[in-house]
Write a structure and sequence with these properties.
The protein is an alpha/beta fold. The protein has seven helices and seven strands; from the N terminus they run ααβαβββαβαβααβ. Strands 3-2-1-4-5-7-6 form a seven-stranded mixed sheet, with helices on both faces. Helix 4 links the parallel strand 4 and strand 5.
């Protein structure tokens, strides 16, 4: 079951949550540099991270929270750009976004494949997807006082296989949150050092798995189609 949006908002407003936000933003910005005019969708509770790419008014960045999580306002003190929707019925047209970021989303989904197929549908053919999930071999997946200690954790291999099963192709794997998941202020002040050390030791110790993927257009071609025939691209959500 998804965490309540209010609880997530309170966590990210805390000193612990602010350290998490800064740490993950650094990794996400490295994967996705700012490109003016890009359409970005945040699925789940991606609100703390979307500001990375909303640098000017023409950067069309919006958020969508699952109904079981409840509503939240984003951005603060500006016109609201966040909505609530069923995880397998997003209120956006086909091929609409250049980028889709999923945070606090897939691990809480009732139907993970349907959620990913909806992301596939609204993403442009040359678009990119980033999924952030709790790492099943890391500490954070078992820290219930943080949002990453709830829902289903994944290994990088499990997430890559799930993406491949829903017509995505994993491009890059990364990890973050090597800091132990405790809200002790002296520990929080050493977050940068923990990240540098953790990246040398290996991604298995990371608190979250980060995978960037693209749409696998060849997976959408019916196998029986003749070679010279035009390529067919699936945009409808499969009932399976």
């Amino acid at each position: 079951m998804a965490e309540d949006a209010g609880a997530l908002t309170r966590f990210y407003a805390s000193p612990h949550g602010k350290v998490v936000t800064t740490t993950l933003r650094t990794r996400l910005r490295a994967l996705w540099p700012v490109v003016p005019g890009t359409r970005t969708l945040g699925l789940g509770y991606a609100l703390p991270y979307l500001r990375v790419w909303r640098t000017e008014p023409r950067d069309r960045t919006v958020a969508c929270l699952p109904v079981q999580m409840g509503p939240a306002r984003w951005p603060r003190h500006r016109p609201n750009l966040a909505c609530v929707a069923e995880e397998d019925r997003l209120p956006f047209p086909d091929l609409h976004f250049d980028r889709v970021l999923m945070v606090h989303a897939l691990e809480h989904a009732g139907q993970t494949r349907r959620m990913l197929r909806e992301a596939w549908r609204v993403l442009k053919d040359d678009g990119r997807l980033i999924v952030v999930v709790p790492n099943r071999t890391g500490w954070w997946a078992y820290a219930e006082r943080t949002p990453f200690g709830h829902g289903r954790p994944f290994s990088a291999d499990q997430l890559a296989r799930l993406l491949e099963a829903t017509m995505f192709r994993a491009l890059r794997r990364d990890g973050a949150l090597y800091l132990p998941p405790f809200a002790w202020r002296p520990l929080l002040r050493t977050a940068g050092a923990w990240e540098r050390l953790g990246r040398r030791l290996g991604p298995r110790l990371a608190g979250v798995v980060i995978v960037e993927a693209s749409k696998d257009m060849y997976a959408a071609i019916p196998a029986a189609e003749a070679a010279p025939a035009r390529r067919r691209v699936m945009t409808a959500v499969d009932s399976g």
